[in-house]
Amino acid sequence: MEMHSTFTHSRFCYKLDQPHCTGGVMLGRPKPGDTEDDLLRYQDRFLASGGDPGVQVIRRPDKRRGEPGTRTPAGETELGATRDIVSMDELPEQPPSLTPAPPQKKSRFRSDRVRFEKDDPAERLDREDPHLTAVLSRIIERDTSAVPVSFPAFTGAPFPKVFHRSEVKDQQASVPPGRRSIFAQNIATRTASAVSEPSQNDASAGITGQRLAPPLSEKMQSHQTDSNPSIGAPLRGAAPRLVSGQGLGGPGGLTAARQIHLENEALLRGMSKAEILQEQGRLLAQLDPRLVSFVKSKKSKDVSGPARSQEDRGTEGQMDTQTEPTLSDTEEGPIDMDSETEGRDKESEPPVTVEDLPVKPQEGWVHMNQLEPEKLEWIKDLPRPRKRGTRQAMQARFDFSGSLIPPDADLPPHLGLHHHGEEPQLAGYSLQELFHLSRSQVTQQRSLALTTLARILRKARSSHFASSLRGSVLSTLLDAGLLFLLRFSLDDSVGGVMSAAVHALWALLVAPDDEECLDSTFSWLQGSTTFPLLPSEKPEEEEEEEEEEGVKEAEEKREERRADYDIARTDLIKALLKMQVLARLRYILEVVRPGPRVVQDVLEVLIRIARHSGTSASQVLDSPRLMQTVLSEFLPCSWTPHPLGPPGGPLTLETTHGLPVATAMKLVRVLACSGRHACARLFNSLGLRERLSRYLALEPQDLLLEPHEAVRLSTEALRLWSIAAGYGQTCDLYRELYPILVRALQCVPSLVAPRGPVEPLHTLSVHRAEALITLLTNITLTAGSQEELQREQTRNPESDAPPPPPVEWSHVTGLRPFLLGSLKSCVEVLSDPLLREGAQRLSAAILLYLGSFYTQLPAQSSFQPVQSLQEMESLSSEVLEPLLSHQAVRSMMSELRSCSALCNPNSCSTGPESIPSLPSLSCCGGKPVLSLAGSQSPFPFMTGLCYLLHAMASTHRGLAGKFSPLLVSEPVIGYLRCCCEATPPLSLSCGWLLRHEYQLQYLLLKLAARLIPVHAAVSQHASLYHQVAMAMLPRLLPGSEHLAHDLLSTLTFNPDFIPEGRCGGPEAADLNQLLHLKESHSDPSHNPTSQLDPSPSSSLGALLREAYSHLPSLRGCYLTHLSQLEPLVRRSRESYLGCTPSVQTQLLPPLSGPALPSDWPFLPLVTLYECAGQAESRGCAVETLPPASVESAVCCLQWVLVLEHWREGGGKAVTPAVKLCRLACLFLCGSDLFLEPPVQRYGWAVLRSLCSPPQQATLDLGFPGSPPPGLASFQDLYSALLAQFEAVSFGDPLFGCFLLLPLQRRFSAELRLAVFGEHVGLLRSLGVTLAQLPVPLQLFTSPPEDSLSLLQLYFRALVTGALRRAWCPVLYAVAIAHLNTFLFSQEPAPQKVDTARRGLLRKTYFLTDEVLRTHLLLFKLPRVDSALGFEMYEQLPPIRDKRLNTVLGRDRAEGGRNGGAV
C-alpha cells in the first residue's frame, strides 16, 4: 500500500510520496554531507529514470474563483495553468479611454449564470478584464530641482534616534495643525525646529521657513509704516514674510531673494512718509481687494519668529480699516443656485478646542489621551448663520415645503433641515443635494427628495422665486436631468416613491391655472378650438428641407436615431412618449391602484400629453389598455357610493377606483378635440355613449357623489357632448334626452337671479349651464345643415359629402323661447354687482346661441320671411336696443381698452420660468379679474352681442342702422385707435387670447361694412375701420384664414373704406408734392425731384386717382395670388360658419406664424420672382414675361402706392428695409419687366415715397430683428441686383436709383466695396443724374469714409477712368468728396493710414489728368445745384497748401536721403 503524507501552506497543498523503485533500481536520497556535485548527480539520475516526483503541488481552488477547471479571468484553467508574462515594453504610454473600476469579488456561481447571445464578447472583455495600464501608467517624476537639500546633523549613533510623540508634545503649538494627522504634525514640528537652528554650512539652503518678498510685496509692506512715528526706520523682519524663494530655482535662488529683500528695506528707508502714503494709495487703487486680503492673511501667519510688536499690529489694523469693506459698504447679492461659498469664512473660524465639544473625553477612554479636535469638529454645535457682506451670489436652499430659505435664517435643528453637506451650518437642501438624496437607498429619503422637488417645481412655475433667484429653476433642473430622474423613479417598486415621482411629474408638466383658463373660455365664440401646445423651436436637423418623396419615412427614421436627451432639450412631451411613459402610467392605474391624489395627478398628466398635439392624443388613445382602464375604473356605468367627508369639504375617499371622476371625463373630452375620428372611436368602440347617457340622465345631486365632484362631472359630460355635436355626431342622443335638456333650461333663470342666498355650488352650476347652452348651439348648427346635406345626398348618392345628421331643424326651433326668456332675466340683473358675473357669462352664451340660430334660419325650407323679420324687430326693440344703452354695457365698452391683450401686451407675456421645450399659456397665478381672460372680462359678452347683431343685420338689413351707437361710441373708437398702434408679440401665451380679441374686431368691421354706406355718423370713421382691417390682416393667427379671406374680399379693397379717393385725396397729394418742390428749390441740399418724370400723367395725384379707380382689379389680383391658401380657408370657414358635419378637428394649426405674411401687399412681386427663379432652376431662360405678369406687377405697385400715401405704409408690420427688399423683386423677376411704361411710372412714385425723410430715418439694412422670409442677408440680395444691372439694365435710371440707395454712408461698407471691387464695370452705365437722385447727396458724403481699402478703390477707379463724371455723376461726386476729406485730414491716425494718406496725396499732386487733379485738390463741399455736384476753391486754402507742402517736402527730404529719387 502506498503511503502519503500531506501538509498545507497558504493556497497550495503539498503531497509527499514515499520512495519507490523505478526499473528495479532504488534511487538514493541526498545525505547531509553531500556536496553540490552530488546533488546534481542525484538530479541527473532521477531525470534519466523517468520516475514521478516525490512531491506534487496541488492548487487549492479559491471559493471566489469557482470550482477547479473553470476559466480564470486571464482565460486559463486553474489546474496546470501557466501565468501570463507581461512585458513592460509593450505597454502603451497612456491608459485606455475608459479605465475600469477596481476588480470586485467574484461569485463562485458566476460560471453557472445565463449568458445571452447578444452579449458582445468584446464589450464584456472591456468591462470585466482590468487592463494592466489601469495600474501601471506613464510615470512622471516630480520636479525637485528647486527643492533645497539639507544634510542631516551628524551624530555618534549608527541610526537616527527614534522619537516618541510625547517627547515633542510641547512643540506642536508652533506649527499650525490644519487638518493633518498627529504623526504628520509631529514630523512637521521636528522639521521646523531643525530648519530654524542656525547653521554655517547651509546658510543658503536652510532658510526654507522664511519668506521672500518680490517688488509687489515690497509695496504692500509699506502699509506697516503708516501709523509708525519712525516711518523711515528699518523694518524689523530680517527676511520677507510673504513669499518663499523656492520658485527662483538653483542653489543661489534663496540668497538672491534675501538680497532683494534687503534692497527693498533700503529703498523704504530712503522714502519719506508722504511718499510712502502716496505709493500706498496708488497700490490700493490698482490692486484687487481679494489680493489685498490674501496678502494680509499671509502676513498674519508668522511662523518663523515670535509674535509681532504692538506697533505692527496697530499698523495692520489701520490698513484693515482702510482696505476692508464694511457690511454697510456692500450689498447682498441675489441668491444663485450655482454659486460657491467663500473659503475665507472657513479660514477665519477659530480652531476647535476640547471645551467646544459637547461630549468631554474622560479618563480611561481608549486612544483619547491626545485629542484631534479638527476630527471631532462635526459633533460640536453649529455656529449661528450670519449675514454675509458680499456681492457674490449664494447657493439657494429650500425647505421641505419648497420655500426658499434666506441665507441668514437661524432655524432650529429639530426641523430636520441641517445635514452633513458642504455647508452644515446652513439649513435647507440645495438642488444638487436633493438630486443626490433622490438616489438614496433609503426609501423615505427618496420619497422626501422627490416630494420636495415637486413643491419647488410648483412654486417655481408660479413665479415665487422670480425676485430671489438668478436664472430659471426649471431650466436648471431639466439641464441636470430631472426628466430622466422622474422617469426612473416612476419604475420604483416602492409605492411611496412612485407616488412622489408621479406628483413631481405633475408639477413639472401640468399648469392648473392654464387648464382653468381654457375651461373658462370653452363657451366663448370658437372657445373649444385651441392651439396645440407644441414647442415653437425645432431642432436643427429638422429645419433642413428634404424632397417630398419619402419625407415622412425619413423623419421617422431621424426621430428613432435621436437620443432621448436630445429630444428632451426640444420637446419634453415627445421625450416622455419615447420613454414609454404611457405604459407605466397605465400600470400604475391598473395594477398599483394608488390613492385619489395620485390618480388625479396621472389623469392630469395624460391631459397635458393629449394637449401637446394630435399625434400625442392618438398615442394616448392607442396605448394598450390605457383608455379601457380609465373608462372602466373612473367612468363606470354603475358604482357603489363610498362614505364621504363633511359637506363642502375636500374629497376624503380612500380610493377613487370604481367611482366616476370628472378629470377622467375631461381627459376623454380633450382626446375628442383631436379629431372627429378619435371622437367617433371613443363613442362607438369604447362605449362612451352609454356612460354619457348615464351621467346626464340624472341631476348632479342624484349621482351619489360628492356634490362638487358631481357638478363637475355633469359639466364635463356636457362639454364632451358639445365637442361631439361640433362634429355632427351623437345628435341622436338629443332626441332621447330632450326632456332632460329642457328641464335644465328651465332652471337657468333661477341661476341668474337666485331667490335665496348664493349657494357654494353656484359658480359650478353657472359653468354647467354655460356648457348646456354651448351644446344646444352646436346641435342647432348641426340641424341647420341637415337639409343641405340631404339635398346633396339625393342629388348625388355617390358623393363624398358626409351623411345628413339625425336631428332636423324642427327639433331645435322650440329652444329659442326658453333661451330668450333667460336672456331677459340676465339683462335685468346686469346692474347688480353681486350677480353681474354669472349673468354676464350666461348672457354671452345665450347671445351666441341666438346668433347661430339666426345665421342658419334663412337657409331652411321652413323659413317664413315676414314672421321671422317681425320676431327680429321685436327682439331688437325689446332686448337689444335697451341693452346697447344699458349702463352695464357702456361700462363694458369702456373696459375694452384696459382688458385688451393687444393694447396691454404685458398682461399676456411669458413668465420667468417659461421654457421652450414645455410651452404653456402663462396663466400661473390666474388672470386678473379685469383682463381678457378674467372673470369680469367684457370680451365674451361684447363678442356674443356683435355676433348676434351681425347675424340679424345680415338677414334684416333694416335693423343695421339701429346698432350704430355701438360703432360710434367713444370707448369703442378709442379702443380701435389703440389697436392700430399696438405691436403684439407672436407667442402661445398671447396667441390663444388674441384669437378672441380679433374675432370681436372682425365682427365690428363687418357691422361697419353694412352701416358705412347708409349711416353718415359711421362713415366718418371709415378710414379708422380700414386702418384696423389693414393692421389686423398680418396679425391673424393660424386657423383664422377665413377671416383674412373675408376681409380681403369685402372690406380691404372696398372704396367706401377709402374715402380719400373721392374726397380730395389725389388733389392733396399733388399739393403736397408742389410744396415739397418749392422747399427743394429754396434749399440746395435737396434734390429737385420734379425732373424725375415731368409728364402730367405721372403726377402723384393722377397715379393715386388711377389706382383708386382700379380697386376691384386689385382685389381680384390679390385673391388670385392667395389661392394657395384655399384648403386652409375652406377648413377655417367650415369651423366659423358652423358646418359641423365637415369639421375635422378642434385643434388649430401649430402657432408657427401669422396666417398671412406681414408683407402681403408685395405678394404679387414675390410670386413673380419665385416663378422666374423656378424657371431658371429648370434651365429655362426668362426673356419676357406674359402680359398677366405685367398687370400683376402694376397692381402691386398701385396698392403699395395707395397704402404709402393714405394708410402710412399699412402700419408698422412692414419696415422700410423689407419694403426695399420686396421692391427689388421687380428687377429680378424678368429682363424687361421694369422697363414697361406703367411699371416705370408707378415705380418712380413708390420710390419717392420710400425715400421720404420719415422712411429714410428708419431704414436699417442690417435687419435688427430678423431678415424677411426667403432672404439670408441683404448682402446676397444686393449682389444679385448688381449682377442683374450689369446684364439687362441698359442704364435704366429707376434701377440705378435702387442700386444707389444702399450706398449711403451710414450703411455697411461691404456694399460699396462690392460696387467698386467686383462690379466696377457697372459704373459706366450707372448714369443716374444728381437731379434724379431721390435722396440728399449729403447722405452719401457725410460722415467721412474711414475704410482705407474703399478709399484706395475710389482713387483707383478715378485714375484708371472707370469712374467718370459723364458716366456716373453721383458716385463721382461721392468719391471726390471722400478722397478730398481723407487727403487733407489733420486727425491723428495709425502709421499705416498716415502713410497711405501721404502716398495718395503725393500721387494726386503728380497726376497728369489736370481736371481730376483739380477736383481732388480744390473740392470744397457737395452741392446738388452745381454742374459738377460740388463747389470748388479757386485756389488751395492756406492750411491745405501747408499740408501739401509738408507732405511733398518730407517726401523730397526722404528721397534726398535715399539718393534724390522721388
Question: What do these coordinates show?
Answer:
- The chain is mostly helical.
- The protein has 62 helices and 9 strands.
- The strands form 4 sheets. Strands 1-2-5 form a 3-stranded antiparallel sheet, with no helix packed on it.
- A hairpin with a 2-residue loop joins β1 and β2.
- α59 crosses α61 (1410-1418).
- The chain is globular and about 145 Å long.
- The termini are far apart.
Helix residue percentage: 40-55%
Basic shape = globular
Extended strand count: 9
Distance between the termini: 125 Å
Major sheet summary line:
3 strands, antiparallel
Structural class: mainly alpha
> Mean pLDDT across all residues, rounded?
79
Q: Provide the low-confidence segments as ranges.
A: 1-20, 63-102, 132-137, 169-175, 198-237, 302-348, 539-549, 1088-1097, 1452-1462
Please report the number of helical segments: 62
Largest sheet, spatial ordering of strands: 1-2-5
What percent strand? under 5%
- Using only C-alpha atoms, the radius of gyration works out to 46 Å
What features would you highlight for this structure?
single chain; 1462 residues; mainly alpha; two-stranded antiparallel sheet; 62 helices; 9 strands; 50% helix; 2% strand; disordered N terminus; disordered C terminus
Write the layout of secondary structure elements.
Layout: E1 4-9, E2 12-17, E3 21-22, E4 25-26, H1 36-49, E5 55-59, H2 121-128, H3 182-196, H4 215-221, H5 253-269, H6 273-286, H7 289-300, H8 310-323, E6 335-336, H9 343-348, H10 431-437, H11 443-461, E7 469-470, H12 473-479, H13 482-490, H14 495-509, H15 512-520, H16 540-543, H17 551-561, H18 564-570, H19 572-578, H20 581-592, H21 596-610, H22 614-622, H23 626-634, H24 662-672, H25 676-684, H26 688-696, H27 707-726, H28 732-736, H29 738-746, H30 748-752, H31 762-784, H32 786-795, H33 815-828, H34 836-856, H35 865-884, H36 887-894, H37 896-899, H38 939-955, H39 964-968, H40 970-981, H41 988-1011, H42 1016-1019, H43 1022-1032, H44 1041-1052, H45 1065-1082, H46 1100-1109, H47 1111-1121, H48 1126-1136, H49 1163-1177, H50 1187-1206, H51 1216-1228, H52 1237-1250, H53 1253-1257, H54 1274-1288, H55 1293-1300, H56 1309-1318, H57 1338-1341, H58 1348-1360, H59 1369-1383, H60 1391-1405, H61 1410-1418, E8 1419-1422, E9 1430-1432, H62 1438-1457
Parallel strand pairs: 6-7
Antiparallel strand pairs: 1-2, 2-5, 3-4, 8-9
Helix pairs in contact: 10-11, 11-14, 13-14, 14-21, 18-19, 20-23, 21-24, 24-27, 27-31, 31-34, 33-34, 34-38, 38-41, 40-43, 41-43, 41-44, 44-48, 45-46, 46-50, 47-50, 49-50, 49-51, 50-52, 51-54, 54-56, 56-58, 58-59, 59-61, 60-62
